[in-house]
Amino acid sequence: MRFMIIVKATKDSEAGVMPSQQLLAEMGKFNEELVKAGIMQAGEGLQPSSKGARVRFSGNKRTVVDGPFVETKELIAGYWMWKCKSKAEAIEWVKRCPNPMPGVDSEIEIRQVFEAADFGAEFTPELREREERLRETMEKAKK
Question: What does the alpha-carbon distance between residue 139 and residue 143 come to, in Å, rounded to a whole number?
Fold first, then answer.
């Protein structure tokens, strides 16, 4: 099972406050443990929403809204993609994580990623094959 581990933003992360050298070292060590355990597939910190944009969809109409976005509790400061045996395993790893926002209350959300089988009959063999080709192309592009 794959999980997206979402580090929620805070007022400080939205203000562009960078992590301390100590936190960077602690997170680096934690990431090494994740990689050695075969858990971590990807992970990045995100710039504040002031440097982002949202595109709203209404029928065929698209509206672009530039950041910043005011509802900090809805914003993401970073993420990991993990491969775990279960949600319980993902929870145990998150509990070992250094506090991503020292000095303030913070939150990490765990969300399971859909797999091809989750889509049922609507995800036809042709669509599955197309998806597999896209994934192979992405892997080749990484190299």
Answer: 7
Tokens at 75, concatenated: 């914003």
CA nearest 98: which of 48, 34, 46, 49?
Answer: 34
In this structure, how many other beta carbons lie within 10 angstroms of the beta carbon of residue 61? 7
Q: How many CB atoms neighbour CB 130 within 10 A?
A: 11
Torsion of CA 68, 73, 76, 79, to 10 degrees: 170
Report which residue type is found at 66: D
Q: Tell me which DSSP letter residue 113 carries.
A: P
pTM of the model: 0.89
- Alpha carbon distance 81, 127 (integer Å): 24
Successive 10-residue mean pLDDT values, the chain, 143 residues: 97 94 97 98 96 96 94 90 98 97 94 93 93 92 86
Q: Which residues of 1-30 are buried (b: 16+ CB within 10 A; e: fewer)?
A: eebbbbbbbbebbbeeeebeeeeeebbeeb
Contact (CB, 8 A) for 101 and 12: yes
